Amino acid sequence: MAMNTASKPMHQTMPVSKKRSASPWVTGWNRFFHNKLAIASLAFLVLIATLCVLAPLLTSYDPVKINLRLIHKPPSAEYLLGTDKGGRDIIARLLYGGRTTLLIAVSISFFVTFIGVTIGSVAGYFGGKIDNMLMRFTDFIMIFPFLIFVIVLKTVIADSGILVLIVVISVLGWGGIARLVRSKVLSEKENEYIMSAVAIGCKPFQVIVKHLLPNVASTIIVQAIVVMAVMIGVETGLSFLGFGVPANVPSWGNMMSDAISPQVIKNQWWVWLPSAIVITSTILSINFIGEGAKEAFDPKG
What percent of the chain stands above pLDDT 70? Predict the structure, then answer.
């Protein structure tokens, strides 16, 4: 008699697919790219920067050469935005001036962020006397009126150029970022992964660079973006007053200096209005990018 062997169910071990949770950076970038205002602002900023970089290919007019026969010419088919008090094409001045202003803003933002992050992270990680000493020095830097110092320096050194402006503002403008990074590092270094890194023998430099700073990088990026917007305004204000970029170098601030004359403001709008619109739009776009990054990378979001 044939025995009916009960077929036992075969349990096949199938790999369980586990969805890995997206890293905070991936989540943050996804949030950022869903922020339409931030993306539009980023596209506008990239467009402005690209046009300024390609200035030699986009215009054949010299932004520096003075032509007395073309002074204050209104917009026409030949000069679409007219000419300024030196007979120079406004569009050429905008493009070449943007290269100067954006270079200054980006350079200062980089150096200010680098100095502030270095001092803030060292102070927050080591604490104690090192923290106290660095923070007292930071307090001195923050209360030091760097704009007045720049004006005095430009008055004493009449032929000081763009490099002096970048160095002075960079050396005196990092205090806020240093304090912010210090507070972030103070709270972050109490986490277990930092204690574990210290326990296995990681050197302070390794702990700061490989473990602490990547976890506060979103805050650093947002602050760097904000500083860039502020520095465009600083360059514009100093150049408007005659203490910023040398007058023979095109910049958005130097273009705005023509608006000192009431007659120019009333009757020759093309001399100052295009630069005012570009400056305002650029600063707003950078601020919108910064706000978008702040919301996207906020861990509480």
Answer: 90
The DSSP secondary-structure symbol of 15 reads P
SS3 assignment, position 83? strand
Which residue, among 96, 148, 108, has the nearest Cα to 255 in the 3D structure?
96
The phi, psi pair for 184, rounded to 5°, reads -70, -40
Closest by CA to 153, choosing from 173, 168, 171, is: 168
Domain extents in the chain:
31-71+79-297
196: left (phi over 0), alpha (psi -120 to 50) or beta: alpha
- The percent of the chain in helix, strand and coil, each rounded to the nearest 5, is 70, 0, 30
Distance CA 284, CA 198 (A): 43
Give me the pLDDT at residue 17, please: 46
What mean pLDDT do residues 165-189 have? 90
> Which of these ranges, 99-108, 213-222, 229-238, 258-267, has the smallest mean pLDDT?
258-267
Strand partners, 83: 89
196-235 burial by CB neighbour count: b if 16+ within 10 A, else e? ebeeeeeeeeebbeebbbebbebbbbbbbbbbbbbbbebb
Handedness of CA 185, 187, 189, 194 (dihedral sign): negative
Q: Tell me which CATH homologous superfamily contains domain 31-71+79-297.
A: MetI-like (1.10.3720.10)
For the chain, give the percent of residues with pLDDT over 90.
45
Instruction: Report in angstroms the alpha-carbon separations of 180 from 119, 172, 208.
Output: 11, 16, 15
Per-residue pLDDT averaged across 223-252, rounded? 90
Bridge partners of 89, per DSSP, are 83
Q: What is the pTM of this model?
A: 0.85
Q: Angle 175-188/128-143 helices, nearest 10 degrees? A: 150
**Whole-number pLDDT of residue 11:** 46
Q: Which two tokens stand for residue 177?
A: 């970022």
